[in-house]
């Protein structure tokens, strides 16, 4: 498949050169790329889901390695893997259900019944299901793989299953791919509409005559504020400019164009103004599994200021920003150092950065990190496209969106290229 | 006084109007546990076992434990006498006692108390002559109640009994089968549970490896099998780390952990319990086990855990708890004295003057806001997930 390979390579180069900006665009393009990878992937006769998963994992690994800081790539790859697993199981259970077995839709029933070694498809499905379902106290006693004590119903089911399976197979393979692509299309649509869904909740959170503070520019925040304005709320917005990129200026312009009362402040004035603020609303780069946030630089300071004055600190972001990883060492692993040219004018400072002076190293260094880590205890509320959530509730959303076994993509050596 | 505000305290006062405070707490258990044959009310049975398994034993303690053990057979026959009538009233007289069975399992040092309870309840099913599910349930309920009241102080015992009862009454896999098949399935699952508990420790050890990085310093408190497994796994995967062990008075369980770690060539430093704040600045994380994890997400653990968590919180160090999920208990303590205190003797080395009270409670409650993450076999959880899991199971 030279076709997909070149697509993948193009995207990898774009990611490496940081040509794709923002988690929204990255998520969307990743999903589209994976969709074409899946549609081009030839599936073998048996274990199609496995083949698809391997293909996606191989591509996903390259993409993640191309830009490890952009967590949205990994998130989407994992989402797609989860989709494949889910579709495979729903097909498998449909097949079993179609054979007239008295298999209810209840998870536990299936898992308990399908232990028979001969029942390959059902056993695979059951095994998958138990991995898809996050482990719980309830399953603690149920989930023991047992060899004996198989009820008679399932062994008789195994025989009839074997006969009709071969006829079923060819339609199944096409169906799986079709269903997966369908589901990915839905995912892309979700990514596209997440801003609107988040913005719909704006009136519940922004009240009349409130003062809102934000830093930098986030499209989600912008649409959130505008949605409240459109519903006839009148409120004021303080925009911290977000040095060194000054995206706050852009946001202020956009807000004024929509008729919002806007005040621009410097980043260093946040603490001075925070006592007048009713709520801080910011956009995130990524939301971690423990409820911590990777956000544009400067936001930890804002969060601390907000905590000092007990101002609610609200984070808005689509579910593609939800990352199933824990920030073990966020400052070290998940930060991006940007070009110093954003901070300084090279012409003016060329003397200080003279490589020929002294021992060959310039005396002036410029560090321009892109992100801050805001710990979960500083966040009051997350607003995602599925509603408002407490930071400690993030694990639950993650359990819904991702399979536990996809958490590390790097485990197997790359086989795709 | 603040204690008066809680209604349960008022109840207790009504029962025991003239006792002094500490005595009142342990005395007040008696009315509800009249059938409680616990041989030595001054010592929690739970801690007795723990000490037998893990303690670095002091002479005084040894003497007391010895006394308790030698008294055991007589008391156990007494227990049989007490339990058997209850069982025979349900129509099946037999020379079998859950508590005997439980104690037999409990002797195995590798087996957690909750697992021992489940194994004991499984034995109840095996010996039961019930012919319907309902009968079996009633019998089990009686057995689990007598187990629970035998040692009210053990949280994991209660949690294990509750978990198994829940499994028996709720499991949907049973609805299809006839009674004998259901019974054999229950027995089988119960017997496999010991396996699960061992596997749970492995899972927890694997999950926590990501959190132990090269060059880190870990503070541990007391002796916990799970924590030992975690550290052992880290040492075996050639991680470089240092461990500070608290001494863990009065039974000095920390010494035993230090002992085990030294065998693994992990650099260990022993601290006295009061040196925790002094040493906190060189520590990267605190690792503790738990006797029980309660619904709020807080933990009940060996005395001193709370103050370590407070110090760690004050100095912004993460506190990680390693606990198997069968320790999740349906309790919601609101403050330290909200649970039946597990008592244990304390040897000060000198005679205590008459009239001086001694705080003999063996454990404290650490509220969830001082814990960072819980490593369980269900995954790495934030404290609030615990209540979620419990609600899913018991609601």
Automatic annotation (TrEMBL), chain A:
- What ranges does the record list as Basic and acidic residues composition bias? 160-171
Question: Which residues does the annotated region (Disordered) include?
Answer: 143-175
Choose one Gene Ontology CC annotation of this protein and give it: cytosol
The record's section on Gene3D superfamilies has: Translation initiation factor eif-2b, domain 2
Q: Please give one Gene Ontology molecular function term for this protein.
A: translation initiation factor activity
User: One Pfam family of this protein, by short name?
Assistant: IF-2B
Q: Name the UniProt key words of this record, in alphabetical order.
A: Cytoplasm, Initiation factor, Protein biosynthesis
- Cell location: Cytoplasm, Cytosol
Q: Chief location of this protein?
A: cytoplasm
UniProt lists the family membership as follows:
Belongs to the eIF-2B alpha/beta/delta subunits family.
Quaternary structure? Answer: Component of the translation initiation factor 2B (eIF2B) complex which is a heterodecamer of two sets of five different subunits: alpha, beta, gamma, delta and epsilon. Subunits alpha, beta and delta comprise a regulatory subcomplex and subunits epsilon and gamma comprise a catalytic subcomplex. Within the complex, the hexameric regulatory complex resides at the center, with the two heterodimeric catalytic subcomplexes bound on opposite sides.
Q: What is this protein called?
A: Translation initiation factor eIF2B subunit beta
Q: Which organism is it from?
A: Nelumbo nucifera
From TrEMBL, chain B:
**Is-annotated flag, keyword Protein biosynthesis?**
yes
Its subcellular locations are: Cytoplasm, Cytosol
Q: Where is this region: Disordered?
A: 1-40
GO BP term (any one): translational initiation
Q: Which family does it belong to?
A: Belongs to the eIF-2B alpha/beta/delta subunits family.
- What PANTHER family does the record tag this protein with? TRANSLATION INITIATION FACTOR EIF-2B SUBUNIT ALPHA
Annotated protein name in UniProt: Translation initiation factor eIF2B subunit alpha
**Species name:** Nelumbo nucifera
List the taxonomic lineage. Answer: Eukaryota, Viridiplantae, Streptophyta, Embryophyta, Tracheophyta
């Amino acid at each position: 498949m030279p076709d997909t390979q070149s697509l993948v390579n193009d995207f990898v180069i774009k990611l490496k050169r940081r040509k794709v900006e923002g988690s929204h665009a990255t998520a969307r393009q990743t999903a589209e790329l994976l969709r074409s990878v899946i549609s081009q992937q030839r599936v073998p006769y048996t274990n199609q889901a496995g083949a698809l998963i391997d293909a996606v994992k191989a591509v996903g690994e390259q993409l993640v390695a191309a830009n490890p800081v952009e967590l949205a790539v990994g998130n989407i790859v994992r989402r797609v893997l989860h989709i494949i697993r889910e579709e495979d199981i729903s097909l498998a259970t449909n097949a079993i259900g179609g054979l007239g077995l008295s298999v209810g839709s209840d998870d536990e029933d299936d898992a308990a019944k399908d232990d028979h070694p001969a029942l390959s498809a059902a056993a695979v499905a059951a095994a998958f299901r138990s991995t898809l379902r996050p482990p719980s106290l309830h399953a603690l006693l149920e989930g023991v793989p047992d060899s004996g004590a198989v009820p008679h119903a399932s062994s008789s089911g195994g025989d009839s299953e074997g006969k009709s399976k071969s006829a079923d197979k060819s339609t199944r393979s096409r169906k799986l791919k079709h269903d997966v692509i369908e589901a990915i299309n839905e995912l892309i649509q979700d990514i596209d509409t997440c801003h609107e869904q988040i913005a719909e909740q704006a009136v519940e959170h922004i009240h009349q005559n409130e003062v809102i503070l934000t830093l930098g520019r986030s499209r989600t925040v912008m649409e959130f504020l505008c949605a409240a304005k459109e519903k006839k709320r009148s409120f004021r917005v303080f925009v911290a400019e977000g040095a060194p990129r000054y995206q706050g200026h852009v946001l202020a312009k956009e807000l004024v164009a929509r008729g919002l009362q806007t005040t621009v402040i410097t980043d260093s004035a946040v603490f001075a103004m925070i006592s007048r603020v009713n709520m801080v609303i910011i956009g995130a780069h990524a939301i971690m599994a423990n409820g911590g946030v990777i956000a544009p630089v400067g936001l930890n300071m804002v969060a601390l200021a907000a905590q000092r004055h007990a101002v609610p600190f609200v984070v808005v972001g689509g579910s593609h920003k939800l990352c199933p990883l824990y920030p073990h060492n966020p400052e070290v692993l998940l930060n991006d150092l940007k070009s110093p040219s954003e901070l300084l004018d090279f012409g003016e400072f060329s003397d200080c950065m003279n490589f020929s002076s002294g021992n060959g190293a310039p005396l002036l260094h410029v560090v321009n990190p892109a992100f801050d880590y805001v710990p979960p205890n500083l966040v009051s509320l997350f607003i995602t496209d599925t509603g408002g959530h407490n930071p400690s509730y993030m694990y639950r959303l993650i359990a819904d969106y991702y399979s536990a076994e996809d958490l590390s993509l790097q485990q197997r050596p790359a086989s795709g290229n | 006084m603040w204690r008066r505000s809680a209604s349960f305290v008022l109840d207790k006062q009504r029962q025991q109007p003239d006792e002094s405070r500490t005595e009142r707490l342990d005395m007040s258990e008696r009315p509800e546990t009249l059938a409680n044959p616990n041989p030595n009310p001054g010592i929690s049975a739970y801690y007795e076992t723990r000490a037998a398994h893990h303690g670095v034993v002091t002479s005084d303690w040894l003497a007391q434990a010895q006394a308790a053990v030698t008294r055991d057979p007589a008391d156990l026959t007494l227990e049989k006498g007490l339990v058997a009538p209850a069982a025979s009233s349900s129509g099946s007289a037999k020379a079998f006692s859950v508590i005997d069975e439980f104690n037999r399992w409990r002797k195995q040092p590798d087996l957690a108390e909750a697992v021992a309870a489940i194994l004991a309840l499984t034995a109840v099913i095996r010996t039961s002559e019930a012919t319907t599910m309902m009968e079996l349930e009633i019998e089990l309920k009686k057995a689990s109640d007598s187990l629970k009241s035998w040692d009210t102080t053990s949280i994991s015992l209660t949690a294990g009994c509750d978990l198994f009862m829940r499994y028996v009454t709720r499991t949907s896999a049973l609805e299809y089968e006839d009674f004998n098949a259901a019974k054999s399935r229950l027995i089988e699952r119960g017997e496999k549970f010991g396996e699960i508990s061992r596997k749970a420790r492995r899972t927890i050890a694997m999950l926590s490896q990501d959190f132990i990085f090269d060059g880190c310093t870990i503070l541990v408190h007391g002796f916990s099998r799970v924590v030992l497994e975690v550290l052992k796994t880290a040492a075996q995967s050639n991680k470089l780390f240092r461990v500070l062990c608290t001494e863990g008075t009065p039974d000095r369980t920390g010494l035993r952990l230090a002992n085990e770690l030294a065998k693994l060539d992990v650099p260990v430093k022993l601290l006295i319990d009061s040196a925790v704040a002094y040493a906190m600045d060189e520590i990267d994380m605190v690792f503790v086990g738990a006797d029980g994890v309660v619904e709020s997400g807080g933990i009940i653990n060996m005395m001193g855990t709370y103050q370590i968590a407070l110090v760690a919180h004050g100095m912004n160090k993460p506190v990680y708890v390693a606990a198997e999920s069968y320790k999740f208990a349906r309790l919601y303590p609101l403050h330290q004295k909200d649970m039946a205190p597990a008592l244990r003797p304390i040897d000060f080395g000198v005679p205590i003057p008459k009239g001086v009270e001694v705080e003999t409670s063996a454990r404290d409650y650490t509220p969830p806001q001082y814990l960072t993450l819980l490593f369980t076999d269900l995954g790495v959880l934030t404290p609030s997930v615990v209540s979620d899991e419990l609600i899913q199971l018991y609601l």
